[in-house]
Amino acid sequence: MGNIHSVTKALESLEEEIILIKNTQHIQDCKALILPGVGSFDPAISNLINTELIFDIKNWIKSGKSFLGICLGLQLLFESSDEGSINGLGIVKGQIKKIPQLSNQRIPHVGWCELLPTRKNSLLKEDELNNWVYFVHSYHAVPSNTNLITANVSYGSEKLTAMIER
Questions:
Q1: How does pLDDT run across 40-75, given as a tens digit for each residue?
Q2: CA distances from 31 to 19, 23, 51, 152 (A)
Q3: Ramachandran quadrant class, 101 (left: phi over 0; alpha: psi -120 to 50; beta: rest)
């Protein structure tokens, strides 16, 4: 899960304390958890299995404490992925699907996209001027409960899930 450095730098710029979780003892000292991600589904799940953090992550989320999954970190919350064969965490019902090949679009989907809010959420404020984010992905989240989707992005004539919130 290769964007740990970027997430760390972003949090440092906000003067937040950062604890890199390497075992279950570290998790107790946190006020919020971020599961970052760059890479592919199976190696990331395998990493969580090997570090024995899955139980703690599931309990953290069940408790209602602050949690943010970024990119692959969001995808890992789902039941499964077209990218791999290992089950996801199953915290969110649904699947990670390969982005459909459209004649006028490239895969991977790369570039800046404006977030298109679908409902109010705790991360996007209505008065913010800049809700653009950078994407490099070939898979997208398809939650069983579409009411979880808080923002999409345009991909040709299609909309892809960009954010969910529960």
A1: 999 999 989 998 889 999 999 999 999 999 999 999
A2: 10, 16, 20, 28
A3: beta
Can you tell me the distance from the alpha carbon of 83 to that of 136, in angstroms, rounded to the nearest whole number?
Answer: 15
DSSP H helices, the chain, are 4-13, 24-27, 41-50, 54-62, 72-75
Query: Residue 165: which of 153, 145, 144, 149 has the closest Cα?
Result: 149
Cβ contact 42:86 at 8 Å? yes
Rounded Cα distance, 45 and 67, in Å: 17
Asked if residue 108 has a cis previous peptide bond (ω within 30° of 0), the answer is yes
d(CA 35, CA 5): 12
The C-alpha angle with vertex 90 and arms to 99 and 122, in degrees rounded to 5, equals 75
Tokens for 24? 């279950």
Q: pTM value?
A: 0.91
